[in-house]
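Quick one - inputs below.
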Amino acid sequence: MEQTLPDRMKRIRNFSTVIVWVITLIVLISGFLVLLLNLFFLAPDFLGPDLLAELEPDLRELSFDLEGEKGLSISLIDLSQMQRTLFVAMIDGLTVFLFCTLWTLRRVFVEYSKGDLFSIVSFRMITNFGWMVLVLTIAEIVSTTLQSMILTWNLPAGQRQMELDISYDDILSIVIACVFIVIGWILAEAARINAENETFI
Amino acid sequence: MPIIVTLDVMLARRKMRSKELAAKIGITEQNVSLLKSGKVKGIRFETLESICAVLDCQPSDILEYHPKEQ
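Output:
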């Protein structure tokens, strides 16, 4: 059965509203978890002994397996304070950037939930989202190298590692980001032409 | 712009008000006003056809070309 335009619009608006809430919840829950991680590693006294004891088994499992000849596995809880601070700062930086990226996507869906499908603002946001995904993917590749350096810094010479890992997912993310950027540009051009057409009587 | 819209002259000749023209050709009075003042980028053939039909005139009666002086 063919959908009428109002039905389709209603569906787009409803779906976009759901996506807006999902993204908001993801950001809030992830933010809370990252805050807990920060408190645990940087200010454990703040959490209190009971909560600390409850969280410790889960956080002890947070280990990083480094590739390489010896296949090193390092638990975050065994790191020095300096290493923890650097590591958590890097995770925080990436998380904040990830939140900004998600928030940009949220803004696109906010526009759609208002029924504003062809606004130049939403198309610019799509381009921005593409750029942010691209930067985030590159930052993740770089951070993997930095993480391996930070995590193995206190090991004796010969066991320190510098890992460079570009996975299939990273390449796919870069391609998808480029597609978003180009689609954003094309849609922005379409919106400009549409706006120009509206000045015709 | 070298294209001058002389719709107001034609309306005066036909003793018709903008509101009446707008209602007959199915566009808003505001758009007729914009058209009269020449503050539009273009006019659709469809609109031009309706105006010519209602005012019983030719496109050249409402559009004039005045080249810019170099």
